[in-house]
Amino acid sequence: MAAPRIVEVSPRDGLQNDPVPLAPAARAELCRRLAATGITLIEAVSFVSPRHVPAMAGAEEVVAELPELRDRTLSGLALNTRGYDRAVATGLRRVNLTIAVTESFSQRNQGCSRAEAEAVVAAVVPRARSGGVEVTVTLSVSFGCPFEGRVDPAQTLRLVERVAALDVDEIVLGDTIGVAVPATVKPLIAGAVGHGLPVGGHFHDTRNTAIANCLAALEAGATRLDAAAGGVGGCPFAPGATGNVATEDLVYVLHESGLDTGIDLDALIEAARWLGEQLGHPIPGALARAGGFPRGESTVAA
Length: 302
Fold this sequence. Notes:
By secondary structure, the protein is an alpha/beta fold. The protein contains twelve helices and ten strands.
């Protein structure tokens, strides 16, 4: 089993619902600290209306402060063609689009139908191809929805099939409210992999299952795992959703399992602690409190 690419989402998904908003300069500094750990892809910003998600205001300012990372390390979330236009105008060459698996969550989270969200992807991909922009599509509430309950795996896989046909670069299955378990993760990831595209997992730790789900996803063929330093996160439009899997906790498990992520774990722990200081409240991640083991010795896998 190969080590996955770890995609750091704390500057976006981690902060979008936190009660303490961070200024663009602080969010840019977080990206710098995360990049210095060896993380190669950071979802830094969200190009959405600050009226709906105030914590994500100033996306262009964040990217402008990071010219050295802009075209190789940073990505941004867009929910519509206007968001995509804003993203590429900053010089970003990686964009994450989202489609909800359920109609109810699509209406609450994106203010549009699933069909309209799919139409956005269909419109964006040809433009991205001609402009040298990579497009990842995250399928939110792939396992369960706060409004419709359990999601039939067949429903998720039908959407995977349609999105794969749009020639996107990568598909990520999102456990937006943290209801998945390994027994549901493995077959769904394997089914998605069967459509021939790189597949990733985005797991929230609402019910303390995220680490187990990440390992199950890897065993089923996932090549990407999203995580947030300190385990911060949550969705303002998903009642009960809590933080993402903590990046440092996930990296520790991978390294101790003999998988080399190329990430400096000690530096990552310090970045998570720094983030906690900026927020001024406890963060969920375990290693931010306990440190690595042996302490001060964990860097990358041997």
